[in-house]
């Protein structure tokens, strides 16, 4: 389900960068430096400009834990072009008309648009920019709700003693899904009521203070200086000061973000957790039959005119490849990239069938990197997806995957998709890279408080909190999540594959992990100040992904 961060290790003080004649691959000579834990912490707050660009920052130069993207372009890439790389974004859909994306969208040159014929015989008619595996479907249940309502007539009210050995595993699945449904519905209803109450109090306080100050967009200094001795104004002042200090936003922005939380929990109650919803009906296929493949359409932006539900996929696409240096919007991590839009993630949990077919579609149509910014904790056909991951491995395609946003240790909790099975911790392939999310604070708060982690099941961390990127209708917005961290790393992967095209998917994965910046310090996990762990123990690499380092190491490996 979609959810509502240096000095590079291999850099030298003065790296010699040599362009090899007749090759797109930059040859790089450098000397490794010591660890980065001696870097001083940033003592000043980030400016608006720094927030919008922080994933591209360099830790040594900027004291911000970005991926040294700007430095990589200025010192290594320069004017070298590289090879065109197709990156598939399997997501909610992508606004292919966006001003900052329209020039980087993949076009299937073997397909004649609009003639109603499968010209390239790939099984998909008029798939000019990708494929929409959801058709006109938008809203969907979470997977455990689908399991619960499907098995409820068979097992409701029964105990383990009533179940035959042949049905025992299915009964256990039902009971797990039922427990999760009851738990999540209660939580969503309680959170919705709580946020409604908070908003009511916040709006009342903001209106009173705005009236007193004669303005709505007041600063924290103005709020501190406001005279408020009588109640309730004194109480309102204290409340608003606390909010501004905690969320680092002005009050109108805080109210806007609160509205987003209300929309999220309302959506959960009315849609994702609603057992009466049948979101799949409009698609017309059997989601439990992998061979039933004649469904979907070529509308990668989905059926909604306002493009509301493709915000997530559009944001992800922009992080990877928003057109660089075009004087508008923002810069994606990678240049010389084409985005293949594959719509397979609804407003709810994705179907295993759609994801398996989406991966295979991307592989068959030329993608060398696939970004999968989604996930769930129940799966009915995980083998279909794992087979697709192995299919991608067989065709030298790297999959970059979001770790998830529940502050969970993935070594203890299975998430889907993944490259392991519950009874076997050995990876099924070496082309699957899982990414956790970083915060913009270098120090104890380095790990985003929502990010999942795991020494065995998360490979690397990258910027994922307060990430500025493209949203539908030529707009831009901050979003957060491991969904944002994954495309940051997908962008690095695309750059490696562009400039060093002979490197294999497993080599690219290893380079990204090995070239990251190692952090030995303790960090807060899950936003709980009482839970601190060594950053090096939160992922397999124990490192922060870094484009500058990755290009240096890729140059050495490719020789």
UniProtKB/TrEMBL annotation:
Any one Gene Ontology BP term: proteolysis
Signal peptide: 1-25
Keywords: Coiled coil, Hydrolase, Protease, Serine protease, Signal
Transmembrane spans: none
Alphabetized PROSITE patterns for the sequence: PROKAR_LIPOPROTEIN, SUBTILASE, SUBTILASE_HIS, SUBTILASE_SER
MF annotations from Gene Ontology: serine-type endopeptidase activity
SUPFAM superfamilies membership: Subtilisin-like
Keyword Protease in record: yes
Residue span(s) of domain Peptidase S8/S53: 82-515
Coiled-coil region(s): 178-205
Active site: 91 (charge relay system), 312 (charge relay system), 483 (charge relay system)
Source organism, top-level taxon: Bacteria
InterPro entries: Pept_S8_subtilisin_bacteroid, Peptidase_S8/S53_dom, Peptidase_S8/S53_dom_sf, Peptidase_S8/S53_subtilisin, Peptidase_S8_His-AS, Peptidase_S8_Ser-AS, Peptidase_S8_subtilisin-rel, Protease_P7-like_dom
Entry's family note: Belongs to the peptidase S8 family.
Protein name, entry field: S8 family serine peptidase
Organism listed in the record: Zunongwangia pacifica
């Amino acid at each position: 389900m979609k959810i509502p961060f240096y000095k590079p290790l291999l850099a030298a003080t003065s790296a010699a960068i040599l362009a090899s004649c007749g090759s797109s691959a930059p040859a790089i000579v450098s000397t490794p430096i010591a660890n980065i834990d001696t870097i001083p912490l940033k003592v000043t707050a980030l400016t608006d400009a720094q927030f919008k660009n922080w994933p591209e920052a360099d830790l040594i130069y900027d004291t911000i834990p970005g991926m040294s993207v700007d430095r990589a372009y200025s010192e290594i890439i320069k004017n070298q072009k590289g090879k065109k790389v197709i990156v598939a974004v399997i997501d909610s859909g992508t606004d292919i008309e966006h001003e900052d994306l329209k020039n980087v969208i993949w076009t299937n040159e073997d397909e004649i648009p609009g003639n109603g014929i499968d010209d390239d015989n790939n099984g998909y008619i008029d798939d000019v920019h990708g494929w929409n595996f959801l058709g006109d479907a938008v809203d969907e249940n979470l997977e455990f709700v689908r399991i619960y309502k499907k098995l409820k007539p068979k097992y409701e009210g029964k105990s383990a003693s009533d179940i035959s050995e042949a049905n025992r595993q299915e009964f256990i699945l039902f009971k797990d899904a039922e427990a999760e449904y009851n738990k999540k519905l209660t939580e969503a209803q309680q959170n919705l009521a709580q946020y409604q109450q908070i908003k009511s109090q916040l709006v009342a306080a903001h209106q009173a203070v705005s009236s007193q100050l004669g303005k709505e967009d007041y600063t924290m200094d103005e709020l501190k200086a406001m005279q408020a001795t009588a109640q309730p104004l004194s109480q309102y002042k204290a409340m608003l000061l606390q909010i501004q200090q905690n969320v680092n936003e002005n009050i109108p922005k805080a109210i806007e973000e609160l509205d987003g939380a209300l929309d999220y929990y309302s959506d959960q109650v009315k849609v994702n957790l609603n057992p009466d919803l049948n979101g799949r009906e409009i698609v017309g296929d059997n989601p439990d039959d992998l061979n039933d493949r004649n469904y979907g359409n070529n509308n990668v932006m989905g059926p909604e005119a306002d493009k509301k539900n493709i915000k997530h996929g559009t944001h992800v696409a922009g992080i990877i490849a928003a057109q660089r240096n075009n004087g508008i919007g923002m810069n994606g991590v990678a240049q010389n990239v084409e985005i293949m839009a594959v719509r397979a993630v609804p407003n709810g949990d994705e179907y295993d069938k759609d994801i398996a077919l989406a991966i295979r579609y991307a592989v068959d149509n030329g993608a060398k990197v696939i970004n999968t910014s989604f996930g769930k904790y129940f799966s009915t056909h995980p083998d279909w997806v794992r087979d697709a991951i192995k299919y991608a491995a067989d065709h030298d395609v790297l999959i970059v995957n979001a770790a998830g946003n529940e502050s969970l240790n993935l070594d203890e909790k299975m998430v889907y998709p993944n490259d392991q099975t519950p009874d076997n911790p050995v990876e099924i392939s070496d082309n699957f890279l899982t990414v956790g999310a970083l915060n913009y604070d270098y120090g104890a708060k380095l790990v985003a408080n929502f990010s999942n982690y795991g020494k065995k099941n998360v490979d690397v961390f990258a910027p994922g909190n307060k990430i500025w990127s493209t949203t539908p209708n030529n707009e831009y917005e901050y979003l957060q999540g491991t969904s944002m961290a994954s495309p940051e790393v997908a962008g690095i992967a695309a750059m490696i594959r562009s400039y060093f095209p002979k490197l294999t998917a497993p080599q690219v994965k290893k380079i990204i992990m090995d070239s990251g910046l190692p952090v030995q310090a303790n960090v807060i996990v899950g936003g709980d100040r009482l839970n601190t762990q060594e950053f090096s123990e939160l992922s397999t690499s124990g490192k922060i992904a870094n484009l500058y380092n990755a290009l240096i190491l890729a140059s050495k490996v490719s020789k």
